[in-house]
TrEMBL record:
NCBIfam families: PPOX_FMN_DR2398
Regions crossing the membrane: none
Protein name in the entry: Pyridoxamine 5'-phosphate oxidase family protein
Pyridoxamine 5'-phosphate oxidase N-terminal domain residues: 38-158
InterPro entries recorded: Pyridox_Oxase_FMN-dep, Pyridox_Oxase_N, Split_barrel_FMN-bd
Amino acid sequence: MTTLELNPDFIIADEQELRGLFAPTHDLAVQKCRNSLGEHAQAFIRRSPFLCIGSQGPDGRADVSPRGDPPGFVTILDDRTLAIPDRPGNNRLDTLSNIIVNPTVGLLFIIPGFEDTLRVNGRATLTRDPALLESMAVAGRAPKLAIVVTISEVFLHCAKAFRRSRLWSAEHFQDRSEMPSLIKMILDDTTGAPTDKDEMQRMNDGLEEDYRRSMY
């Protein structure tokens, strides 16, 4: 694939030029930002089984990672503090390593069937506090650590992106079988996937078994 070279004449490089392309921000879009969790934000978080957390490393490299659990898995410690359990994953530790050197994070809370979302920005700390971790146990297994976020900004986000994407519309769901399995795609891009279908199926089954064993 040929590398695209952007025409420098059309690159937007300063905020004044950027804002000149758009109408002024609506007053309500500014006023809705708060520095603490109100009644509706707390209710939204208690219903949410899924969030994305954005972080940034010391070199400026950005990262976004999903987090999911039963609804209400994020603990509201007070109206300015949240705690997110860290469940078993692939041990890359991208988000956790980033937080140690740059605690600024952004959260996007999603509720299945809801087209609006909740955004939270703040500063994160990693903790191994036993009492907190035990309160987050699932199936008798507590997380190794939790991400505690001190909120600096919280606001509800409109439904336009979800409506454009038709994310919750069942008639627009795509057939997963139209793409290879996760493990095959990773192997294709790295060491090469086995050509033997039975061997590939054993690897797919192994991944599913790992999901069952190590979810918590």
